[in-house]
Amino acid sequence: xxxxxxxxxxxxxxxxxxxxxxxxxxxxxxxxxxxxxxxxxxxxxxxxxxxxxxxxxxxxxxxxxxxxxxxxxxxxxxxxxxxxxxxxxxxxxxxxxxxxxxxxxxxxxxxxxxxxxxxxxxxxxxxxxxxxxxxxxxxxxxxxxxxxxxxxxxxxxxxxxxxxxxxxxxxxxxxxxxxxxxxxxxxxxxxxxxxxxxxxxxxxxxxxxxxxxxxxxxxxxxx
Length: 223
Known about the structure:
Layout: H1 2-13, H2 24-56, H3 60-72, H4 75-86, H5 91-114, H6 118-126, H7 131-161, H8 174-183, H9 186-214
């Protein structure tokens, strides 16, 4: 174990490991690209759904059941299925990552909307505000802390799962894991896993700090 950790330290600080198309900086940029793009697409899909369900109260079972669906989703199986249908491309990876991120965003958006005091909604309507004004000027600002929690959780899930890009011969930090397994190089496997974990932790800390700063005058929401 000591030798493995020593080899990991040497692998991480090696100058050769930080240069070229297989360097850590390049693989990190690829990993972040996959993760951020998938999360943005998921947010574009999930936020309107969560807002609509929360505002109208219709289709609540969708938001509730999506959480269980997200936990049960066989991500690698979905990648393989789309890969067989579409051929060698990044589409299987992006579809799987988006499908993974959507449930967290929908359920947290719905939870944030339902947490808004009904009396606040009634007061807004009583002042003559139209439905879209109630939604965007009253409900959305109050629900925003939980919505941001959902986005944060989705991004961390996607970062941790984006290693599957290497499963279909693309890049990202998962390249070290899959190449290391193929080469029986435990140091490379451990290095890839540590890098993915570090990226997830750093992003989580950064987003949670930002969230606390933006909503420092509100009670911290629980996801």
